Amino acid sequence: MANRFIRSASILLIAALLECNGAYAQELKPQNDPVVDPELDPNPFDPRAELREYFRGRLTGGWWASEPIYNLSMFRVLLHAPKGWRGNPNSAVANLCPDRDHPIWKGLSAFAVQAFHQQHSWAEVTCRP
């Protein structure tokens, strides 16, 4: 009987000590902990999203861009000219390269664009800052 009493008292004592340690640890923890690890960037650079957004804002007159692909260590974007469009597709594509101070160059060192017109692909143009 005494052995049972000692065991029950020991269990209660251990539970009380564990509860006190948990409450003490919570008191020491700062209330305004950052949700994101400060070593990680909460808004990492997403090259595909940046290229999509860039061309979405620049293409007019029926031109549209395919999904950017990563191939041979560079992103590539295929730009489709509308039917009946007249002009030099390579010149049109080269004029779409971002300016030197555009924010896209913070995450990319270069990317390629290629026109698709009259049922075939034209020469690739590499955009660099």
Sheet having the most strands: 5 strands, mixed
Strand content: 15-25%
Which word captures the global form? rod-shaped
Structural class: alpha+beta
Residue runs with pLDDT of under 50 for 5 or more positions: none
Number of extended strands: 5
**Rg calculated over all Cα atoms:** 30 Å
Please render the helix and strand layout as text.
Blueprint: H1 2-28, H2 47-58, E1 64-65, E2 69-71, E3 74-80, H3 89-94, E4 111-117, E5 120-127
Parallel strand pairs: 3-4
Antiparallel strand pairs: 1-3, 2-3, 4-5
Q: How would you sum up this structure, described in words?
A:
This protein has helices at residues 2-28, 47-58, 89-94, and strands spanning 64-65, 69-71, 74-80, 111-117, 120-127. By secondary structure, the protein is α+β, with helices and mostly antiparallel strands. It folds into two domains: 1-33; 47-127. A hairpin with a 2-residue loop joins strand 4 and strand 5 (120-127). The longest helix has 27 residues, at 2-28.
